[in-house]
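Hey, I'm writing a tutorial for new members on how sequence and structure tokens pair up, and I'd like a real worked example in the thread rather than a made-up one. If someone can provide the structure for the chain below, I'll link this post from the tutorial.
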Amino acid sequence: MRPGRAATRPGRVPEEDWMRDLASTLLSWDRFAVASVVAVRGSAPRPVGAAMAVGPSGEVIGSVSGGCVEAEVYDLACQVLASGVPALASFGYSDDTAFAVGLTCGGSLDVAVQRDSPSLRAALQASSDGVPVSVRFEAEGRVFTESWLPPPRLLVFGAIDHAAAVAEIGRFLGYHVTVCDARPVFATPERFPAAHSVVVDWPHRYLASTRTDPSTAVVVLTHDPKFDIPVLTEALSRPLAFVGALGSRRTHLERLARLREEGVPEESLARLRSPVGLDLGGRTPAETAVSIAAELVAVRHGGSGLPLSALSTPIHRTLESHGTDLPQRRRHEGRPAALPAPGHTDGVPGPQCGQVPLLLGAGEVPRDARVGLGLGRR
């Protein structure tokens, strides 16, 4: 069986949380099979954690590759949907024919496919509700674990036209976006429909009362000292993933002088990305937002910001232990812990849990737990 037309969904999320992105659709289906990339070797279009699901009528959402092996994975998911028996399959480059099933980029990947279950639905619901959870499932004698975490936050200060564009592209990248400004006439939900929340408050006061973590990004767009200096002073005192500020080079130099007067140390000032954005040559709010988003992505993944055509290094960064890249592990530090589940007080599924995947118990989400941490016999 081949898919018809793939379902389309607005936006996408950062690469560590595809299952959360699929959760609302999966929970609306009465049955489904979901395929997850559990290992990647060499160059591959999608990293560990990428997921694709097949619904009761053959509809498909998500992706596990750039299209190279989607049809075969779809067929495998249909088999699992019919049989209920989990499956594990490997796909790699084929030298026999360009039309053979394989990854033309030269890499290989393993895909685990599982059928829906009450415990999987419970985990998906918890993830959809913003609760950090870990899941565990088994396929062909191997056990895999994966952590599903809340989306990282993007705090945008300054209710200007640029903020609307930044909020839209930030949401597209999978951030939970908040726009904050002290002026109620400008900070309205109608002006920022893409933002998850719009807050009327002084930026520094809101940030001081808001929980952040090492995955949080702050973008200051006001370029007005009475707003900028207090909020940047607060932001640069925190271990955030990204702190950027809009403005000219002259504004940047004046801003640095004022921040020094406020006692911000040089090592903190070195973290300030100002003028924010990569040099793309654009001028409009939308083009500026793309520039800012490009820098966000480059910082998040350790990219150079240079054209790929000018580089000879691998396109995709090498993943470290169990398919988790170092920047991702750093982003996960400080994220909320998984909530305890009945019978899992020691963090290990108890014998009363006959189905997988399982919500793991108390303690923090395993920071190197990705699908791809295979245990047991091969």
